[in-house]
Amino acid sequence: MLSIKNIAVLLLLIASLSSCDDNIRNQDTDVSGAKSHIMSEQYFSDGFIWAHKVFSDGDFLTAITELKKNETAIKSLTYSNTTYPVEVTVNFGADSNNVCLDGRTRNGELKIKIWSAFKNNKSSFRVISRNYFINDIELEIEDTVLNIGIVDGFKTYESTIRKGHMFADTIIVEWSANKTWSWQAGHTTATYDDDIYFVDDKVKALAYNGSSYRAETTKSMIWTLSCNWINFGTILMQPENVLFREIDFGEGLCENLVQVNIGVKEFDITID
């Protein structure tokens, strides 16, 4: 049987360990990895978004004409055929001052090859970047996408990116993701600015602070193509040897603020 003295020592030890744990939690305030993930969610989805703008209506020749007229940052939009399969090259030129309608600068190229109409079940396409920059950050993207048909009443696309990279000076992000895009609204109109996707993903990545992590959607992200940012949804991010990060994109307002929760602490992140 423990003596009163031994019990007292044991309680002091437990209190000490609890205090150390609280101190560790209080010191865990690094949001750089979470910011890296937020930026990656936005930027590595760029290939899918541009493929949608070109091909989602079905009449890609008309869409190309409209994009060339409205997106003055695009220097050329060329296509290999007038029927499927077709490869379209979106060229933003070499000037880093090309400002797109979403407020981001782009230069370099996206090559989009699609084998049949975007809306067709089992249609597929691939997006490959070439010397591609967003806001002076270089991206290496190869995104392979398959239309898997109707899921829960909505056209759904599965996207796979393997070892995409993001570079800026010494910033290096490695990104692998399996993403599901559920086309919730706008698929009956000819314009894309009323289109809405619900997006879920599982990610394995190396953040620009050097830590590896996994992340998974816990509440579907909402991409409203009339908004420049993800404006709804949550992600649970699990870095190595530190607390989970919960990334909260908000409740539907179109704004560039994201909340990151670490334990009981809350941090606001501004995204480009």
Give your account of this protein's structure:
This protein has one domain (30-270). Helix content is 21%, strand content 46%. The longest helix is centred in the N-terminal third of the chain and has 24 residues, at 4-27. With 272 residues, the protein is of the alpha+beta class. It has a 15-stranded antiparallel sheet that branches. Mean pLDDT is 89; it is low at 7-25. 31% of the residues are buried.
List its salient traits.
single chain, 272 residues, alpha+beta, 15-stranded antiparallel sheet, 15 strands, 21% helix, 46% strand, globular
Write a short abstract of this structure.
The protein is an alpha+beta fold and 272 residues long. Helix content is 21%, strand content 46%. The longest helix is centred in the first third of the chain and has 24 residues, at 4-27.
What is the overall number of helices?
A: 4
Cα distance spanning the termini: 63 Å
Overall form:
globular
Total number of beta strands: 15
Percentage of residues in helical conformation: 10-25%
> Mean pLDDT, as a whole number?
89
Number of domain units: 1
Unreliable segments (pLDDT under 50, ≥5 consecutive)?
Answer: 7-25
Report the biggest beta sheet as strand number plus sense, adding barrel if it closes: 15 strands, antiparallel
Percentage of residues in strands = over 45%
Give helix and strand order, one letter per element, not per position.
Answer: HHHHEEEEEEEEEEEEEEE
Structural class: alpha+beta
